[in-house]
Specification:
heterodimer; A: alpha+beta; Arc Repressor Mutant, subunit A; about 15% strand; globular; B: Rossmann fold; eight-stranded mixed β-sheet
Chain lengths: ~90, ~675
């Protein structure tokens, strides 16, 4: 199932957990668990942006603060890409 | 069920309670309560043990240990509350404590408690518990919550599928407690036909598992089952590896290590088989509703994240944002503009009447109010823009917009992660460039840094809105919308070219979490608008103020107010040949150059040089020249702050100069083309 998730990701298109759940025939909550495990095992990398877009920006005062959109996405790591196609 | 102390007088718990229990432990059924945090484990433990609880620490650990006892149907049950855990891998001390207790102390029964509203979340733990020697009873707690949420669980079906007792329960109402105790006793005295259907490792790694078991069989510490140890080693469990290394001979360790290295991805098949098993159990026994917020989100997402409809919806929504900005923001901006203009005129007259030297009224009226004041007048436009952006963000739509834009990212060969920083560019290009740090691949990072300035930032959008309204009046909405689209098209085209010929990026798919749609929170949006407005006004009072004063000084001296003879005119005329290719008088080229300090300076400079922009600008430029000017303004080199972070993040002057150089060439070439083609079409 985990390998199937990695393979489903490597189809080349972005996907939401809901779409992957539909594709793999499991509840969406299970996808979240699987993703967490794959991140822990370094098959997926997590990217999060951000509670404050300007956090860490040295020029914050010059350009002002932007909004606080929180987005999380996960991409395949090199290890994940290899594992997806290992027979 | 009774507690071990006197139920009639709970306060009379004897001090020697634990000693009494210890003596009776010889005959007691030992029951371990396992489960994730917040599934009601403590509630069940407290209900069963009452005041007979003993609280201490697990030996050698700082994790709290709670034990207690009760009597049911003539059987004494010694309850042990295991720490809350999500799995039995040695990720935390709690998980080690839980699994070590089950293996070393061999409880008669393990009760796995699951939140019935989200059973799939707890079933991984159950999958691991079933691999241990102790028999398991499954408790589906919070059945009332599941029912309220319309989730139908069939305990009998689940029991048949699992081959273990499954007890529905509402612990807060004590509903199901007796049935659970009956099941515990039945499993302990073997009157229940306990035949668990455990998850099995996928065939790919069956053979290596068998070989590993054979290798380890006589080298695992008692009472750890070799099958379980082998499985955990395949999962990469460091705790079990340490355990094994302590007792196994060197040669066996080396052989096992080589085997594990060769099969380091076996964890995918071991854990993957458990998830497949959970999926089967859930499909067999759980029916979820598709109503309410989740249903609404799914229904909306079938359109808003659709490859075609999603893009059309995004274009439509952007159109609505601009239409709103024009319908509400522009009248307010014009009103403020009139207010500032009237104030500047009155002040200038008053100062001249009291005999102030002529340059002072000009400085205040043309330099300060004409420059900074003109920029401040578009605060209402920013309020509308940030408010609509805030609504889109707070409802959860903006994440969908980012998601449907993924196809453009693929066209450009951009890494999936590139799209988060680029999205930030709509607020400000500086965090967009800084956000590229999350991309590991240098090429993809560089590509993102070079493209980020093409995302129109809030300042650019505000300048575009004000100038669009001044130059194109009724057609302003379409012009602005088209120019924003042009930026994105140029971004995609340039990205494609760079990806094809210079920086080979990597296309990576990704999973993106989409929040549920919900009604926007007015307070959140108000705060968001307020913070951005304050930041904008601070900028107007600092960077833009200084730039306005510099432009005023250069336009006033040495000719005492005659702009055509001023320093800036001399400089501007030198650039006139460039301006003439786009039908632009020199002040427009100067305005473009000052936008390098801050994008808003375009307005400030034109305000200082021309006064009130509304009536002045349309008379100065033909339609093709006006369009060319806006095109160059949108595609021009980024502000100095963005260039600085481009250098900082690329660690390369070469790439920073290439990036800004490309934008300079692209913006001027496009501007010239727009003017020349437009003039040709309109017949000069």
């Amino acid at each position: 199932m985990l390998r199937a998730l990695l393979r489903a990701m490597d189809d080349g298109e972005a996907a939401t957990p809901g779409e992957l759940a539909g594709k793999l025939g499991v509840p969406e909550a299970l996808i979240a668990q699987m993703v967490a495990q794959l991140v822990e095992q370094n098959y997926l990398a997590e990217a999060v942006l951000g509670t404050d877009r300007c956090t860490g920006c040295e020029l914050n005062a010059a350009c002002g603060e932007a909004g606080g959109m929180r987005l999380r996405l996960w991409t395949l790591t090199e290890k994940g890409r290899r594992a997806a196609f290992e027979e | 069920m009774t507690h071990t102390h006197s139920d009639s007088d709970p306060s009379s718990v004897p001090i020697s309670h634990s000693r009494v229990v210890d003596a009776e432990d010889q005959r007691a059924i030992v029951v371990a309560l396992a489960g994730q945090p917040n599934v009601g484990k403590s509630t069940i433990f407290n209900l069963l043990t009452g005041l007979s609880q003993h609280v201490g620490n697990w030996p050698g650990k700082t994790v709290e240990q709670k034990t207690g006892s009760c009597v049911h149907a003539g059987h004494r049950l010694r309850m042990v509350d295991l720490p809350g855990t999500y799995s039995l891998t040695a990720n935390s001390v709690e998980e080690r404590v839980a699994r070590d207790f089950i293996i070393r102390d061999s409880p008669d029964v393990v009760v796995a408690i699951v939140d019935a509203a989200i059973p799939e979340r707890s079933l991984y733990l159950l999958a691991e518990l079933l691999l241990l020697p102790a028999p398991v009873v499954l408790v589906l707690n919070m059945m009332d919550v599941a029912e309220q949420e319309g989730i139908q669980i069939e305990p009998q079906v689940l029991q048949a599928a699992l081959g273990i007792p499954v007890i529905p329960m509402v612990a807060t109402k004590r509903d199901g407690l007796e049935r659970m105790l009956d099941a515990i006793v039945a499993v302990a005295d073997r009157s229940f036909p306990y035949a668990p259907r455990r998850p099995t490792i996928l065939p790919d790694h069956q053979e290596v598992l068998s070989r590993l078991i054979a290798l380890l069989a006589s080298h695992v510490p008692d009472p750890y089952p070799p099958e379980w140890v082998a499985l955990k080693l395949l999962e990469g469990d460091e705790g079990v590896w340490e355990l094994f290394r302590e007792v196994a001979p060197e040669a066996i360790i080396d052989e096992a290590y080589a085997m594990l290295r060769q099969h380091e991805d076996a964890v995918l098949d071991v854990a993957g088989a458990r998830y497949a098993w959970i999926g089967r159990m859930i499909r067999a026994a759980v029916v979820r509703p598709r109503v309410g917020q989740v249903g609404l989100t799914s229904r909306l997402d079938t359109v808003l994240t659709h490859p075609l409809w999603g893009v059309l919806a995004l274009i439509g929504i952007l159109g609505v944002v601009f239409a709103l900005t024009y319908a509400i923001g522009i009248p307010l901006q014009e009103w403020l503009d009139g207010l500032f203009g009237g104030f500047a005129e009155s002040l200038q007259d008053a100062l001249l009447r009291v005999g102030t030297p002529a340059w002072i009224p000009s400085l205040i009226s043309d330099g300060l109010i004409g420059g900074v004041g003109m920029v401040v007048t578009f605060a209402p436009i920013l309020v509308i823009f940030f408010a609509t952006l805030g609504v889109l963000e707070d409802t959860g739509y903006l994440a969908r917009a980012a998601y449907v834009m993924d196809r453009f990212m693929h066209l450009m060969g951009l890494h999936g992660k590139s799209f988060l920083p680029l999205l930030l560019g709509f607020g400000c290009n500086v965090p967009a460039v800084l956000g590229s740090r999350i991309i590991e691949s240098r090429r993809s990072r560089l590509l993102t840094i070079l493209l980020a300035p093409l995302v129109p930032c809030a300042a650019q959008l505000a300048v575009l809105t004000v100038l669009g309204a001044a130059l194109f009046r009724d057609a302003a909405g379409v012009v602005v919308w088209s120019l924003v689209s042009l930026n994105l098209v140029v971004l995609a085209g340039l990205g494609w070219l760079l990806n094809q010929f210079v920086l080979k990026g990597e296309q990576t798919a990704f999973i993106m979490e989409l929040p549920l749609y919900h009604l926007p929170n007015l307070r959140t949006i108000a705060l968001y608008v307020y913070r951005n407005l304050i930041a904008f006004l601070q900028k107007a009072g600092s960077v833009i103020l200084i730039a306005s004063l510099v432009v005023w000084v250069l336009s006033y001296f040495p000719s005492a107010g005659d702009v055509s003879q001023s320093f800036i005119a001399v400089f501007g005329r030198a650039l006139e040949p460039l301006g003439s290719t786009m039908g632009l008088p020199w002040p427009f080229i100067v305005a473009l150059i000052t936008s390098f300090v801050a994008k808003e300076n375009t307005i400030a400079t034109l305000g200082v040089l021309y006064g009130d922009l509304g009536p002045a600008l349309p008379a100065l430029l033909s339609a093709p020249a006006a369009l060319a000017f806006l095109v160059v303004q949108m595609l021009f080199v980024p502000c100095v702050a963005t260039v600085a972070v481009m250098k900082q993040e690329s660690h390369s002057w070469k790439w920073t100069l290439i990036g800004t150089g490309i934008l300079l060439v692209v913006s001027l070439t496009t501007g010239v083309l727009v003017y020349q083609i437009g003039t040709g079409l309109l017949g000069g």
